[in-house]
Write a structure and sequence with these properties.
Oligomer: single chain
Order of helices and strands: EEEEEEEEEEEHHHEEEEEEEE
Largest sheet: 4 strands, mixed
Shape: rod-shaped
Length: 263
Amino acid sequence: TAVTDPTGKTVDFTYNGSTTAPTAAGSYAVIGTITDINYDGSESGTLVISKAAATLTLGNLAQTYNGLPRSATAVTDPTGKTVDFTYNGSTTAPTAVGSYAVIGTITDINYDGSASGTLVIAAQSITDWRTDHFNIAEITGGLADDTADADGDGLSNRSEYVLGTDPRSFSQSPLAIAPTSGGQLTLIFVARRASGTGYAGLTRNYTVESSASPGGAWSPVTGHSILTGAAATENILGADQAVSMTLPTTAPLRFYRLAVRVE
């Protein structure tokens, strides 16, 4: 707009050289020129059209690890606006299990807006494994419960999940003991990789433990004579490798067990 002195004179405007008033947000060089038979005059300035405020709502913030980048989503008002995301400050969508601070920012010539949240990528779990091995009727009927033994092999469904064995097929004990010559015995097991449905984002770890009695204190085996397939007896990362350990059978009496965890 313009106020003239003398008042009431007609003023023509140009915006970046155009006589058409702009619509989009931005800065425009304005020249106002008096058009009058008896008066001359002009003035220049800058017209600034600020961006309008827009809102956005973040979504898809709870996801499960699958080895691929996991991205957040957003709904904008007005709809259809482009949103750029950062995850812990990076523009690359994360893949690994964990929590990530997400900021979504509208990138639009006429609108501004942003929102923040937390993207949580969870590892798969026994729930995913259960639905892969049991049907809905078996899940609701209890056959798929953690404590149930669907195949009658003495291992609960939860134990089968931890060990990586099939809950619908009879499984042998994961730890075998074989006598060897010279008063020794060999402990043998396969350190299974955590893979397949229910294990994405997880690892399987093994520890060979010993105790002076079944009800006593258990601790990782030390002082073993021969160990193959692993660097130590504790926290052996499962990679489908065979592990064997040769131990003396001389006194004192010892009991052995295999501790397995999925994490």
